[in-house]
Specification:
The complex is a heterodimer of chains A (about 550) and B (about 80).
Chain A lengths: L2 H22 L5 H6 L6 H12 L2 H14 L4 H25 L4 H8 L3 H33 L4 H51 L4 H4 L10 H11 L12 H17 L1 H4 L8 H37 L9 H7 L4 E3 L19 E3 L3 H4 L1 H4 L4 H38 L5 H24 L5 H25 L5 H25 L18 H18 L6 H10 L12
Antiparallel strand pairs in A: 1-2
Helix pairs in contact in A: 1-8, 1-17, 3-8, 3-13, 3-17, 4-13, 4-17, 5-11, 5-13, 6-7, 7-8, 7-17, 7-18, 7-19, 7-20, 8-13, 8-17, 8-18, 10-13, 11-19, 11-21, 17-18, 19-20, 19-21, 20-21
Chain B lengths: L2 H32 L1 H4 L3 E2 L2 E2 H31 L6
Antiparallel strand pairs in B: 1-2
Classes of the chains: A mainly alpha (about 550), B mainly alpha (about 80).
């Protein structure tokens, strides 16, 4: 069968599965809508968290980014997994014991202030919106590439699907669809990786294949280092970025991961504190399957590409090259007219440009795998984009219905709150879809910065809310605002006001805008502690609450209100 | 729970966290970033050691860390009778 037919069949089947699950598990109460009724098993929650977390960027783009940046790509690998250690050890168990629905809930109660809650809501909405727009764009790109329909229609179709199950199912529907989506995406990622690893190194485990020998008996990574240096690039296993910058970016990504509201909220759905800890462990285990395979896919991809294209005749390139040339993801331009392709670091002489997404999208074709594998990768990429989008939409709708409407109208009936939550989710889908179709140039850029902002705003305030009983509302509000404004101004200055100055020489301490969230975080901690020192301690009720959340017993299910 | 006992539980919890976070820092920021050039002199299989920690080893360690934490805390909860079952 044709690739296109397989793609339609596999994507169609996976969608039917998601919709079926959504109908079967739809939410009936606010508690089910916000936290799936608090009855999800740690294993299921771990899978759902993994799917929620791994976005289109993790699935499609990350391996490619590593292909072209080698060691420097490690910031994503360590940054996007190390955060789960912080989450499991420092946040998840205590927030579960606290037992309400959202991050702003915790901030508002712990800092006994609606002002603090509103600041937290604004941070949550800002982070989630930037992130979700990127996902909708991802959905559109996958649709247009695989199903050969215009990107706009892809986005609209994706919107309808997400709308259907996020708005209808709430957290309960989303959780069980995400479990299915995890299975689809990990299978789709692993199958080509295993085959490529076997073809290249004879080892079926990609993680080990990466460190094995290729056909001529030399180690893959050594050979890659050699080939790349010869072509004028930096060696694959050594970095180009400054060590300080690598350090700060990794830290910002880790801390940001732990501060992302759509990830934190997943730990409200399990029954007990010990389940929250365990499910963080499962989540990272499931995530690490993809995250330790991605660097292998990256190394195989760049190696294969160079082997099959570099110094080969222009009119006799492998069939996958011409296939993807149609989408402009690969372009070949024989500048010196010698009939051969030169892939070189020198931009003036380089004749081959490759989009980073190729490394995953074209891997089944490069390895000459059957057509159904291509369709499978398409279904996996869709699963990754849809699951993340749904999780984010839920945070947006919860923030609006619970953190904004209920705060200012505490007597609202549950039915009305549920209706507002659904309306907000619907509104968010439309806005996200609009940005997916008409991406303002900055969307892709801003997504990367959502982490820095989460690191600089939420993380310190939540940590100190748990581990210190002296930090008060004045400190928390001052800290959040300082962290957010500092990080935002640094990013806006270098990315939008004076992009021409966005180089090492002008950065503070050599830290790029991607890593500045770390400094924002330290500032937040610092301001928060100083301001709290000179203002009155929190009231006794709050002190008691802090003691209470430190002990697991008595968590029960998430409180009604 | 009486206050002194509660404080003892919390202290033991913090000590556990401290040790685990030291390991967390050492395998990622230590081996994978700050000491990467030094460790790259050594090889395991076809990997330079520092590079391996940055792209594989740190991630495996993270997973183990969380499960160690889970086991350790479940024990501690039982010891102080604050467990949930």
């Amino acid at each position: 069968m044709e690739i296109l037919t397989w793609t339609y069949i596999l994507v169609g089947l996976s969608f039917a599965l998601y919709i079926g699950i959504a109908i079967y598990t739809r939410a009936g109460s606010t508690k089910e809508f916000y936290t799936a009724g608090g009855g999800v098993s740690p294993l299921a929650n771990g899978m759902a968290t993994a799917a929620d977390w791994m976005s289109a960027a993790s699935f499609i783009s990350m391996a490619g980014i590593i292909s072209f940046s080698g060691y420097d790509g490690s910031v994503y690998l360590m940054g996007w997994t190390g955060g789960y250690v912080l989450l499991a050890l420092l946040l998840a168990p205590y927030l579960r014991k606290f037992g309400k629905f959202t991050v702003p809930d915790f901030v508002g109660d712990r800092y006994y202030s609606n002002k603090a809650r509103v600041v937290a809501v604004i941070c949550a909405l800002f982070i989630s919106f930037t992130y979700v727009a990127g996902q909708m764009r991802g959905v559109g790109i996958v649709f247009s590439r695989y199903l050969e329909i215009p990107i706009e229609w892809g986005v609209v179709f994706g919107m309808c699907i997400v709308f259907f199950y996020a708005v209808l199912g709430g957290m309960k529907g989303i959780t069980y669809t995400q479990v299915a989506q995890y299975c689809v995406l990990i299978f789709a990622f692993m199958v080509p990786a295993i085959f490529v690893s076997m073809q290249l190194t004879g080892n079926p485990i990609p993680q080990m294949g990466m460190g094995s020998t290729v056909s001529d008996g030399s180690y893959l990574l050594d050979k890659l280092d050699g080939v790349l240096t010869e072509l004028g690039f930096a060696a694959y296993t050594s970095g180009r970025k400054e060590m300080a910058d690598i350090f700060m970016i990794t830290l910002a990504l880790m801390v940001g991961t732990a501060g992302l509201p759509h990830v934190i909220v997943r730990f409200f759905t399990v029954p007990r504190v010990k389940d929250a800890r365990l499910s963080a462990g499962y989540a990272l285990a499931f995530i690490s399957i993809l995250y330790t395979t991605a660097p292998a896919v990256a190394a195989f991809g760049i190696y294969n590409t160079i082997e099959s294209v570099s110094e080969k005749k222009v009119d006799n390139l492998p069939i996958w090259v011409s296939n993807w040339q149609k989408t402009n993801l690969i372009t070949v331009d024989d500048k010196n007219g010698d009939g051969m392709v030169q892939y070189l670091a020198d931009k003036g002489a380089n004749e081959l440009t490759i989009d980073k997404d190729i490394m995953v999208l074209a891997s089944p074709e490069i390895a000459k795998l059957p057509n159904w594998v291509v369709g499978l990768v398409a279904a996996g990429a869709m699963a990754a984009a849809l699951s993340t989008a749904a999780g984010l939409l839920l945070v947006i709708s919860t923030s609006v219905s619970r953190d904004l409407f209920r705060t200012f109208n505490p007597s609202m009936s549950e039915k009305k709150e549920l209706r507002i939550a659904r309306l907000a989710a619907a509104g968010a889908v439309v806005v996200a879809g609009y940005f997916g179709i008409n991406p303002p140039g900055f969307v892709a850029e801003v997504v990367a910065f959502a982490f820095g902002l989460a690191a600089a705003s939420f993380f310190p305030v939540i940590i100190m809310g748990i581990f210190s009983s002296r930090i008060n509302k004045e400190g928390a509000i001052a800290g959040m605002i300082t962290g957010l404004i500092f990080t935002l101004s640094y990013i806006i200055f270098f990315k939008f006001i004076s992009p021409e100055l966005n180089t090492k020489e002008y950065w503070w301490f050599g830290i790029s805008p991607e890593g500045i969230g770390s400094i924002g975080m330290f500032l937040n901690f610092f301001i928060c502690i100083i301001v709290s020192k000179f203002t009155p301690a929190p009231p006794q009720v709050v002190q008691d609450m802090i003691q209470e959340i430190r002990i697991p017993r008595g968590a029960g299910t998430a409180l009604e209100h | 729970m009486p206050k002194p006992k509660m404080q003892q539980y919390w202290r033991k919890n913090l000590i556990t966290l401290f040790y685990l976070l030291v390991v967390w820092f050492v395998v990622s920021f230590g081996f994978g970033i700050l000491g990467v050039d030094y460790l790259n002199q050594f090889n395991i299989g076809g990997f330079k050691l520092g590079f391996w920690f940055a792209q594989q080893g740190s991630i495996f360690t993270f997973v183990i860390l969380i499960f160690v934490y889970v086991i350790r805390m479940n024990k501690l909860d039982k010891e102080f009778d604050v467990n949930e079952d």
